[in-house]
Amino acid sequence: MISVFFAYFALMSIAAGVLTVALKNPVHCGLALLALLLHVSGLFILLNAEFLWAVQVVVYAGAILVLYLFVLMLLNLKTEERYFHASFTYFLIPAVLGALYIMALLLRSPFGGAKGDAPAEAVLREGNTFAVGIKMFSEYLLQFEIVGIFLLGAIIGAIVLAKTPKPIDSNLRDR
Amino acid sequence: MVPLSAYVAVSAVLFMTGLLGVLIRRNFIIVLMAVEIMLNAANINLVAFSYYLESMAGQLVALFVIAIAAGEAAVGLAIIIVVFRGKISTNVDEMNLLKW
C-alpha cells in the first residue's frame, strides 16, 4: 500500500517538476510548482514527518507560492517566443547523461550509518510535532534564533529594495 | 517497504530537473522557481535519511531550509521588481549590468 502511494507521489512530483521547467506561460509554471509542492508534502507524510507536511503546505504552497503568483500578476509578463536559453541543447545532453550516471550510482549504493535516538515507535508515542519541538528548542536553539534574525533581515532587505525610489531633492542637489 | 535509495533517486531526479531549469530558462521568475525545485529535492533527501536513520536532525534542517527558501523568495522577487522597473524585462540574458 505504501509502495503504491510512494509511486504516485514520486511520479507526480517528477512530472510536475518537469512541467515547471518546460511550460511556456509563467503562470502555468507557478501552478505546476504548486502541484510539485503538494506531492512532495505527500512524500513527507509517508516518512512520518507530519509537522513538516503542515509547514510545507502552509508556508511553501500557501505563502511562498502566493508571493510568486502575486509578483507574476503584478509584472504582467508577456510570453516570449523563445523561452529557452539559446544554447539549451548543450546543457540538456550533459544533464541527461549526468542524471543517468548519478542514478546508477545511487541505486547501487547501500546507504547505512549509525542509528540516531529517535526510532519510529518513540516518535509516534508523543507525536511528531512534540519530537520536533523538543529537539528544536534544546539542541537547535541557536540555529533557530539565527534563522529568525535572518528572516527579519530578509524582510527588511526586500522592503528597502522594492520601495519606490524618492526623487532627488532639488536644494540638496544645488549645494 | 520502500527502500531508502528510491527516495534518494526521486530527489536526484528532481534536483537535476531544477538545475536544468536554472541553466536553460530565460525568465528570471522561472529560474527562481527552479531553485525552489532544487531546495525541495534537498528536503526530500533530508527527511528520508531522518526517517531511515531514526534521527530527528534531518527534519529540523529541512525546516530551516524552508525558512531560508522563504527569505530567498522575498529578496529575489524584490530584485525582480527593481530590475523590471528599470528595464521592463525579466530576461536573464539582458541583465548584464555587473558584467565587464
Characterization of the model:
The complex is a heterodimer of chains A (175) and B (100). In chain A, helix 1 runs antiparallel to helix 2 (26-46) and helix 2 packs antiparallel against helix 3 (50-75). Among the domains of chain A are: 1-77, NADH-ubiquinone/plastoquinone oxidoreductase chain 6, subunit NuoJ (Four Helix Bundle (Hemerythrin (Met), subunit A)), CATH 1.20.120.1200; 125-164. The longest helix of chain A is centred in the middle third of the chain and has 26 residues, at 50-75. Chain A has eight helices and no strands. Chain A has 175 residues and is mainly alpha-helical. Chain B is mainly α and 100 residues long. The mean pLDDT of chain B is 87. In chain B, 77% of the residues lie in helices and 0% in strands. Chain B is built from three helices and no strands. Chain B has helices at residues 4-24, 28-52, 57-87. Chain B has a single domain (4-89), classed as Orthogonal Bundle (Helix Hairpins). The interface between A and B is large, with 83 and 68 residues.
Secondary structure layout plus pairing:
The complex is a heterodimer of chains A (175) and B (100).
Chain A: H1 2-22, H2 26-46, H3 50-75, H4 88-108, H5 120-126, H6 128-136, H7 141-162, H8 170-174
Chain B: H1 4-24, H2 28-52, H3 57-87
Helix pairs in contact in B: 1-2, 2-3
